[in-house]
Amino acid sequence: MPAPGSRSRRSTAPTSGSATVASSLIVIIGDEEFLVDRAVRRLIDETVGSDRASADVLQVEAAELDGGRLATLVAPSLFADQRVVVLRNADALSKESADELLSLCRRAVDDPTLHVILTHRGKTNRGKTVLEDVLGLGARRIDCPRLTRTGERIDFVRGEFAAQGRSISEDTARALVDAIGADVAELAAACAQLAADTTGRITADVVRRYFRGRADASGFAVADAILDGERSVALEQLRWALATGTAPVLIVGAVAQGLRVLARVGSAGRGRRPADVARELGLPPWRVDRARAQLRHWTPTAVAAAIVATGAADLAVKGGGVNPAFALEKMIEDIDRARVTR
């Protein structure tokens, strides 16, 4: 079973015993490392089962192979009933090693004790020929593309809960993504933890209460709250961040960075596709989506006034003021006032 968030299909290339090929020859394509690693682990578990002692599992990086080494590494074993070869990042294979890999994959088609799992980062022409050749043998394909959009992460979170027999709304999934951030591994861990520790319906309020005080309540959490127009939340996050040791200068820096993103996205115009704006500004698309949502609370004049307030706080926390905590609270009040009176 592919990992939630990944997509799986079996090649329709005409081969004899195609179901057997699909279980002994598998290609994982994508650069979302957590999903790739989880897919590899699950495939090994499916192949080997509980009888690990009678299986020989070999994992090797393609970049570490030189001519003839792959054949040596996968030589038949006298003691293993099943052999699983995991070749990671096939896009880094040399031409000679690619030929050896293709030969190994042809052996796997006819040898029920040999299983080959191949990973390829995709989005590159390197290793494309060997990838197409392996798929042409009838290999099963699992896609694990990087989750770059907020909507993709929300779908991933909902899939994680569905896999555990739970369901959550889109709003609840969005609250979890907002609380945890963009790291897919952390999102998966949070989903597992929340599903295990709660019963009944999981709502956005449950998520917020559960992850309140998380280490992620840092300068960026303060910045997101004040840019969202949530003054009281921003103050609460500020006090928590200071109490847990976040340096005042980092908090000011996060707010300044958020304001710069607002200014840049705002000047790019609203009629353009987020992906085009993201490419032009060098931002992830989800950050453009978030900034556009935040800009509903702002005008260019208000953003400019907030930048001035942030500059004053920056001076204060770097030695120009007596009390950094007071300077940060004043920054939040001044930014909120600029937003409200825009």
From TrEMBL:
It catalyses: DNA(n) + a 2'-deoxyribonucleoside 5'-triphosphate = DNA(n+1) + diphosphate. It comes from the Bacteria. Keywords: DNA replication, DNA-directed DNA polymerase, Nucleotidyltransferase, Transferase. InterPro entries: DNA_pol3_clamp-load_cplx_C (IPR008921), DNA_pol3_delta-like_C (IPR048466), DNA_pol3_delta_N (IPR010372), DNA_polIII_delta (IPR005790), P-loop_NTPase (IPR027417). Its EC number is 2.7.7.7. SUPFAM superfamilies: P-loop containing nucleoside triphosphate hydrolases, post-AAA+ oligomerization domain-like. Residues 27-129 form the DNA polymerase III delta N-terminal domain. One of its GO terms (molecular function) is DNA binding. One of its GO terms (cellular component) is DNA polymerase III complex. Residues 219-332 form the DNA polymerase III delta subunit-like C-terminal domain. GO terms for biological process: DNA-templated DNA replication. Gene3D superfamilies: 1.20.272.10, P-loop containing nucleotide triphosphate hydrolases. It holds the Pfam family DNA_pol3_delta_C. Belongs to the DNA polymerase HolA subunit family. This is DNA polymerase III subunit delta. It comes from Acidothermus cellulolyticus (strain ATCC 43068 / DSM 8971 / 11B).
